[in-house]
Amino acid sequence: MTAAVELKHITFQYYGNERESLKDVSVSIQKGEWIAIIGPNGSGKSTLAKIINGLLTPQETGEVRINGMLLNEETIWEVRRKVGMVFQNPDNQFVGSTVEDDVAFGLENNGVPREEMIVRINDALEQVRMSAFKQKEPARLSGGQKQRIALASVLALRPDIIILDEATAMLDPVGRLEVIQAVRAIKERFNLTVISITHDIDEANLADRILVMNQGQLVMNDVPERIFTLGEQLIELGLDVPFAQKLKDALQAQGVAVPDDYLDEEALLEWITTSYLKK
């Protein structure tokens, strides 16, 4: 099966920087996967996202393929139509005076006929549950609503891959939940590939697989269950672990025999209830 994203030996160095931002990174992401990329500030997470989208070009030794297509000068615009990005601050993405105008902007740039444009706008807003706000000014929306509009603008372009570049970082818990729920529903409906760059460990826990970056290198690549059991190693990298894992480790330190498998909050609560509270 052709991978949605294939990176081979990606190295990148910003002009004027002494050290490389990415060092020989190779990874394959399958169609329909939800991948979370975590790591301390400056680890290369966002640089990697821009490489995937063609906003940055790797050194000559690196190779990027999107749905099997080699990314180069001839294919870059076609690749960018396949990869949509939602950034951290939605205000920086708004260009229209109304929600409808904003979602239409990318479609107009791509020369989508007006009749099809109307269908895509309505469908995208419906997917993020923002149809009632079509004529509203984006500036008057809440943070979560703004980010859902930014997501709708990307969805209207019908990409195969969505990159969330710290897309929930500036949101409160309610807004964060709104965006993640919208992304999950859309991913399942269209079998999209989602790449989430995040500092939010609970958000990363939703992924099928987690990539851990450090100093430009890919240092871990595994399912959340195995990544989060490496608590001390993550903390040494300046990262956090989910609350459920912290509680499980604290119980174990007190001599409680806890399960070896990783447990999220729901599973840990069920285990505590079953093992102790019902006795």
Would you write up a description of this structure?
The protein has helices at 45-52, 76-82, 99-109, 114-127, 143-155, 173-190, 201-204, 224-227, 231-236, 243-253, 265-277; strands at 5-12, 22-29, 34-38, 63-66, 69-70, 83-86, 161-165, 193-197, 209-214, 217-222. The termini are far apart. Helices cover 39% and strands 19% of the residues. The protein has 11 helices and 10 strands. Helix 6 (173-190) links the parallel strand 7 and strand 8 (193-197). It has a 6-stranded mixed beta sheet with strand order 6-7-8-3-9-10, with helices on both faces. The chain has a 4-stranded antiparallel beta sheet with strand order 2-1-4-5, covered by helices on one side. The protein has 279 residues and is α/β, with parallel strands linked by helices. Helix 3 packs across helix 4, helix 3 runs parallel beside helix 5 and helix 5 packs parallel to helix 6.
What is the fold's blueprint, element by element?
Elements: E1 5-12, E2 22-29, E3 34-38, H1 45-52, E4 63-66, E5 69-70, H2 76-82, E6 83-86, H3 99-109, H4 114-127, H5 143-155, E7 161-165, H6 173-190, E8 193-197, H7 201-204, E9 209-214, E10 217-222, H8 224-227, H9 231-236, H10 243-253, H11 265-277
